[in-house]
Amino acid sequence: MRSMMSNNKGRSLGAHHHLPCTRMQQIGALFLVVSAFFFARLFFDRPPCDHPVRASGGPLPLPFTGGGDLSWPHRGYGPHLDLKIYVYDEDEVDGLKALLYGRDGRITPKDCLKGQWGTQVKIHKLLLQSRFRTRKKEEADLFFVPAYVKCVRMMGGLKDKEITETYVKVLSQLPYFRLSGGRDHIFVFPSGAGAHLFKSWEIYINRSIILTPEGDRTDKKDTSAFNTWKDIIIPGNVDDLMTTNEARAIQPLPLSKRKYLANYLGRAQGKVGRLKLIELAKQFPDKLESPELKFSGPDKLGRAEYFEHLRNAKFCLAPRGESSWTLRFYESFFVECVPVILSDQIELPFQNVIDYTQISIKWPSNRIGPELLEYLESIPDEDIERMLSRGRKVKCLWVYAPESSPCSAMQATLWELQRKVRKFHQSAETFWLHNGSYTNRDLVKFSDWKPPMPLA
Ligand SMILES: *[C@@H]1O[C@H](CO)[C@@H](O)[C@H](O)[C@H]1NC(C)=O
Ligand SMILES: *[C@@H]1O[C@H](CO)[C@@H](O)[C@H](O)[C@H]1NC(C)=O
């Protein structure tokens, strides 16, 4: 089954055929099928305009209706999810607890759940509850190694050297990691540093599957820890304040009510593009809102206040910061401004199924200036509305919702993971015999491999 997975490229979000039923398109745009096997499709092209609608306005599961243009997940990923993921238990591997809660065990998952890096906790928790979780290592397609190291490091729970040592200790206890050379093991690195958080990633986990929002890290390191062909870009963690459908605190404004053409609301951090925007805002204060914000004090915006400002422009500029990904890109979908990416190296999630030209703009970062504002000003409101309405259809893919929710960042990540599954595993230190038994170089059977495993 898996080896027969479709190679078809994902179809784009529908660029063609706009029906005059935008309101219904917004709401009825997603529909899904949950049949005996999990089987869902996301509907982008030509949504019929007579979908029943739930009071909440959320996506409504509908019976499968067939038809030619359905694009996701079938065209992007294959017909259904069939996946077994083993999640290492904190009690099973010495050192995992330190990677989760710090050397003294004092850092709580709750501390680590908030903010743009919350994905390291959310993905772990969602996998623990997932119907695709298996408790049997022998039948697992993939292995998840939980760690909240971004948070743990930020909160002083582990230093860089301890992070490296602890990872090495953990990995040396995993025979299955040794068997595949790490190729079927999954790690989450939720920040711009990507896998560089584990300084020796290149020696120990350079074949593993890395989930990270960051596809590039060229500003400080000479090698990128992201590899397009084995790793997966995940969306950053947008504040629950905005993503929880029922309790969404800040609603989008109608285009005509927005005060600004564009905004950038963030700290400059000494980055060229951001500094240019802050300067530009001084020249064109009625078009561009871009105050110089600070990390704390009166020039810091509170969470709600931040979103209040963000929704007050037609375009939300998303310049590169310390690294190329930016949470602002994802946030813009929840206040419904068109994201304008000013970060040349960015990699975006789920490119099998999302055509980003339909929902965003990417502008060369060396052309930040009056020219950019002139260009944005020339875009008719109806084009903006069209992009926003398509954005409404995909934004569910930025939300780390429970698996019962058929469209979510987690669902899409599971589809991506499924593409990484292999029937066969090997490494330079893995051998096999006529009867299918794996051995190591000393012809010791796999079942007799005992930790500590040699690494690298
Ligand atoms: C991974 O690291 C090993 C050395 O530890 C190196 O030989 C190999 O080329 C690296 N592989 C990739 C894909 O970078
Ligand atoms: C396969 O063959 C090897 C060598 O003859 C033997 O040691 C091993 O137990 C066999 N494995 C199975 C599963 O029969």
From TrEMBL:
One of its GO terms (molecular function) is glycosyltransferase activity. One of its GO terms (cellular component) is Golgi membrane. The chain crosses the membrane at residues 27-44. InterPro entries: Exostosin, Exostosin_GT47. It is found in: Golgi apparatus membrane. Residues 83-368 form the Exostosin GT47 domain. Belongs to the glycosyltransferase 47 family. This is Exostosin-like. It comes from Trema orientale (Charcoal tree).
